[in-house]
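To close the chapter, one final illustration. This time we ask the reader to focus less on the individual chains and more on the assembly as a whole: which components sit near each other, and how the overall shape emerges from the parts.
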Amino acid sequence: MDKLKQKFIEEASEHVAEIEQSLLLLENDPDNPDLIEKIFRAMHTLKGAGSMFGFEKISDLTHNVENIYDLIRNGKLPFTRNIADLTLGASDLIRLIISEENQSEPATLEKYENMKEVVSNILSEISKGNATIMDEKAIDESLMATYYIYFKPGINIFNNGTNPLYLVEELAGMGKSFVLVHQENIPDLENLDPEYCYTSWEIVLAAETSVKTIREVFIFVEDSAEIEIQELSKKDLFENKKFLRKLEKFIPGTNEIGFDQFKVLAESSDQSVANKLKKALGDDYKKTVRDYSISSIRVASEKLDHLMNLVSEMVTTQARLSLYVEHESSGELTTINENIQKLSRQLRDLAFEIVLVPIDTIIIRYQRLVRDLSKELNKMVVFQATGTETELDKTVIENLTDPLMHIIRNCIDHGIELPDERISKGKPAEGKIQLNAFHSGTNVHIEIQDDGRGIDVEKIRTKALQKGLIHDEANLSDRQLYDLLFLPGFSTAENVTDVSGRGVGMDVVRQKIANIRGEIQVESQKDLGTKITLKIPITLSIIDGLLVEVDKTNYIIPLISVSKIYSIDHSAIENKFNNYIVLDEERIPFFYLREEFEAAKNTEGQEQVIVIQYENQKVGLVADAVVGEYQAVLKPLGKHYRNQQIVSAATILGDGTVALVIDTNRAINYFSKLITVEESL
Amino acid sequence: MNTDGTQKDIQSYLTFKLGDEIFAAHVSKVLNILEMMKITKVPKAPSYMKGVINLRGMVLPLIDTRLKFGMSETEFTPSTCILVLDINLNNESVKMGAIVDFVQEVIEISKDKIQPPPTLGNKYKSSFIDGMVKTEDYFIMLLNLEQIFSTDEIVSLKGVTSEVAS
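The assembled structure is written out below.
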């Protein structure tokens, strides 16, 4: 039971999230019926499930909210901001209720009672205004029934120009129907008179109608035809699968079945399990089932982790096989190995794709954050996001949530000014926070830009001096000053607010981003705004790499950052103090890896220049040899190497040795810093 | 192997040699003893961090214990071994390999035989050593592996080496 309850809680949280998401979308598009429908349905599901698992409060609450949305859905109530606020409040409350072990925390209870009152107030106001709505609906519902109709037109029906088929069609059009045609009375061809009608019909009709209305269909043929109309059931029998199955067994042309037999059929099916279940889950049960196409399935994330691990192991094992085949070359084995290699590569790509999640999934909570926080701080802020379909590994996404949250909080709290201040600066009263996500090489960039007051570098400098972080005479660039923001305990906010300003923010943000091998950058202009750029690697698990050798040690360079490889003579890089080399008539700065890694330099022979795309320029890395392509399963280097700048991970090669994965961006950064330091000396 | 001994006061230690001196590590911290294998050097790392090896699919960092103790760099001989250690750093279990010159044996030491580490004129930073045991002809130093290999200590190695040097 606990497990089921856990499942309910999980699902309920998702429904709440879905409600929130739809609501926020609705604010921009208040007439979208799909969104209203979505909220309605989520509320409905919560109601049913809530009462099933003993969350009476949830089912009560959602019941009322659902009623509101039912009215909106039927166009009887406009969607307003008030309702949005109310619904958001209700979602919060639901979240609170499910998060509590016992449902009787006094604070929650109070909130619950308040919310209940507000909801019922709205409902009663509506019903005062439209007193008829509920009643009408009540009548409508009671009319839903299934009828049995027997129709045998008089044999001369064609004479007065009536086509009995039209009547049958008209009946069928009133609701859901099942039509059984009886043609057994049609005589042999030689006895047949084409002027006569020999056919009869039996119809099962489920519709919101009455015997009287049905009878009206036959108004012109009533006198000559045999007509029988009876109610089979007070319910819509077409919702009942068992009944439907039985109906389908009737073959056209068989003898007339008659009302009594249909009645027996209806009653026996009525007591079926399906019906009970339907009752328990509400009338929408069937509808939701039908709407639910199995285009995606839910999988526990541990299973995905396990899958990734297995695929990683397989890739490693496959590499061993390749190595073995190289030595024991036999035609057949080579082919098999190539196939396995191809398959494992596809499998890897697929597994890798499965664990990619669009940024979308976390954006929605920021919309909520911006909405609530700006209200709280009396600021006007819109939040826009582009490129939210950009995908990242799910573990990366998980680690991104908090840092992004913090950055956006900072934007609202420190960045965006109060509306008056903005107007006096000649800016629109409404501030804007823009989030852009896009691919850039092996990385995904996420930019968060606000149009607020920007970061005051002088303020940073003063603060840093106060805290003794920099010297008086230190001549720091703006960028270096921004970097100070990421130091622990550094906050320039004058007032410590509930939101930010406690100085635990930005250093944690940087740490968390660094944990997923990402980088963070700040750009700002006074009164124009601040842009924070996060550069995040797409994945943490497997990459396509180029295996190279430097001083008998293997290194992996991520293939995606490699643009070209040149083979040159050692003399070409000898005594180049400016570290530039000309390749394809292009001047490319290079780093001699042996030198950078403090290994003995070569004196002659061939060198391989691997040209890397680094930011907007090309940079060459000079290695001893290029071994080939390699699918590298990334393994952490461990705590002891956490300060490593050049190498981001390790991977195990087919022969069991370890190769180091070079983080090209950071490595080149590191190498070039060394140069600038040397130059400045 | 009985790691706890029959009585609580008796503890098992694995002894090994660095140069001529004998050290001991509590057996509960030693997972495995490996022969030397090909080490992948990690560039731009402190010299005592020898590199990494593949331990059954896991990347294991190796530390040159001699360098760590302010001795000369380990020369690899057939008796050079890697002790795979599982130590607890900041409540996190960390696996690492310590390169030693020679692995001797597992000995049982009763608690009352353990003497406090010398405080004066000691060659080694005393927080690294839990205690000393005197046998017939030599001293065995019982190491505090957590202290020695905690990441902080590795970072602040400069202080240690200068102390050793002074």
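Residues 141-285 of chain A form a domain with the Alpha-Beta Plaits fold (CATH 3.30.70.1110). Chain A has five domains: 2-129, 141-285, 301-355, 357-537, 542-680. With these observations in hand, you are ready for the problems at the end of the chapter.
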